[in-house]
Amino acid sequence: MTQKLIINGGNDLSGEVTISGAKNSTVALIPASILADSPVTLEGVPDISDVHSLIEILNDMNVKTSFEGTTLMIDPTEMVSVPMPSGKIKSLRASYYFMGALLTKFGQGVVGLPGGCFLGPRPIDQHLKGFRALGATVDNEMGAMYLKTEEDGMKAARIYFDVVSVGATINVMLAAVKAKGRTIIENAAREPEIIDVATLLNNMGAKVRGAGTDVIRIDGVEEMHGCHHTVIPDRIEAGTYLIMAAAKGKDVTINNVIVEHLEGVIAKMEEMGVPLEIGEDYVRITKPTRPLKGVSIKTLPYPGFATDLQQPFTPLLMSAQGESMIVDTIYPKRINHIPELNRMGAKARVESDVILIEGGHHLEGAEVKASDLRAGACLVVAGLIAEGQTIIGGVDNILRGYDNIIDKLTSLGADIYMEDREEEQGDN
Ligand code: EPU
Question: Which residues contact 408 (CB under 8 A, 6 or more apart)?
Answer without folding.
Answer: 17, 241
